Amino acid sequence: MKRRIANWGNYPVTDAEVVTPSGVEAARDVVAGSAMLISRGMGRCYGDSSLSDIVLSTDRFNRMRSFRENDGLLSCEAGVPLGEIVEIFGPRGWFLPVTPGTKFVTVGGAIAADVHGKNHHRDGSFSEHLVEMEVLLGNGEIVTCSREKHEDLFRASCGGMGLLGVILSATLRLVRVETGWIRQETIKAVDLDEIMKRFEESKGWSYSVAWIDCLAKGRETGRSVLMLGEHAGKNELRRSLDGRRACDGWATKRVGVPFFFPEFILNRFAARAFNTAYYGHIPKGRQESFVDCDAFFYPLDKVHRWNRVYGKRGFVQYQFVLPVRNSHEGLKRILRAVSEGDHPPFLTVLKLLGKGSGFLSFPMEGYTLAMDIPIREGLFPFLDRLDEIVLSEGGRFYLAKDARMRREVFEAGYPEVGRFREIRKKYGAKDRFTSLQSTRVGL
After folding, report:
1. Mean pLDDT (10-residue bins), the chain, 443 residues
2. Interatomic CA distance for residues 216 and 225, integer angstroms
3. Which of 141, 137, 115 lies closest to 126 in space, CA to CA?
4. CATH class of the domain comprising 181-407
């Protein structure tokens, strides 16, 4: 029986048959008897990349298999949430090598989207720390692939949005940490020139991310707050937190959004007021503090169902990356268009990325901007105009956040898409694993 489902942006909403196999043999049966099938973890992609006629849920592929304490090598099933890894192994002195801005993502989803984090400029994306994975192909065969075995399947699956097969399990390498706290430095920047300068000066930090005011104009265009971070050691923590237990940094508390916000609240005045208040409360100069793991990496996870803030019509996260050489001019053009337009973002994040990898992996060396924008009349034509700016500056868009990109826009940003299609055909995935997104962009 079909039911209505959507991913985190609450757009689009579709009718799908959701199947939750209890094990590998059951998953084989689902794959063998289905066309127009895609696998889905926790549904935290923003658009339609894990929506299809038939959705294979990996909820029951949620077991840890093995862990080597000496070098942090973890083997687990693909349905294990990243948050569970943090909860179990954080207090034991291990952390994810790369994490997105939410821990409510499965390992399989992190691979399929090849997620990046605040440390991409130094440590790359999730796939860089992946040793191998098991993939269930369309013919029922389970293939273990890595950089040494079935390398083409491995590369295509990293960032391939589940279009090669069902990722069943993975082995990845965690990184050592001493505490659950982050030593954070906050820097206020008056405009785009300064924030980009601060990013370049801070490449030595492990983590960096900036909140940016997309509605500021004139000399204040691009005013921002940069947040830098390093995992705190036990000794510095004892000196700075008056003996508070290091393990407290792993604690989690949540509040919830009980209903969808009404659309009339989501206007330019509200967005401008929020941006002005947030920027204004940050002191000038450099501010040092210690924050817990959740506060630094997953601030929005503390608000259960925060996507309801954007109303019943949902929202899009418009995320693009521009190459270094064009980032300054390209960001200026985008910020100008957004500040003058009728579709104000309510949350905008800027990050510096390093070199990319994989056929459809999103990152490239440059700057990425992500904007949360409520869906209203006229939004998509407005975003089409932004697309033209991004493409003219040599940029591309993140498939895990996309809900409306046209085929020609997608292909212009991913020059290796032809090779990806060849690998899909080679492994018998073309007519088996299909999402609403893959149909829309011609994959």
Report:
1. 92 96 95 91 96 97 96 98 96 97 97 97 96 97 97 97 98 96 95 97 97 92 96 81 53 58 66 77 86 93 85 94 97 96 93 90 97 95 98 98 97 96 95 95 95
2. 13
3. 115
4. alpha beta
Question: In what helix (H) or strand (E) does residue 95 lie, and over which residues does it extend?
Answer: strand 94-95
Per-residue HEC secondary structure of 199-247 comes to HHHCCCCCEEEEEECCCCCHHHCCCEEEEEEEECCHHHHHHHCCCCCHH
**Residue 435: half-sphere exposure toward Cβ, Cα within 13 Å:** 29
With both helix axes pointing from N to C terminus, report the angle between 379-392 and 324-340 in degrees, rounded to the nearest 10.
160
Kindly report the backbone phi and psi dihedral angles of residue 214, in degrees, each rounded to the nearest multiple of 5, phi listed first. Answer: -75, -10
CA distance 181 to 294: 9
Residues pairing with 303 in the sheet:
255
Three-state DSSP state, 366: strand
| C-alpha–C-alpha distance, residues 234 and 229, integer Å | 16
SS3 at position 85: helix
Return the closest-CA partner of residue 160 out of 361, 412, 425, 355: 361
**Hunting for tokens 């990293």 — which residue is that?**
158
User: How many whole angstroms separate alpha carbon 403 and alpha carbon 437?
Assistant: 7
Give which of 369, 325, 364 is closest to 347, Cα–Cα: 369
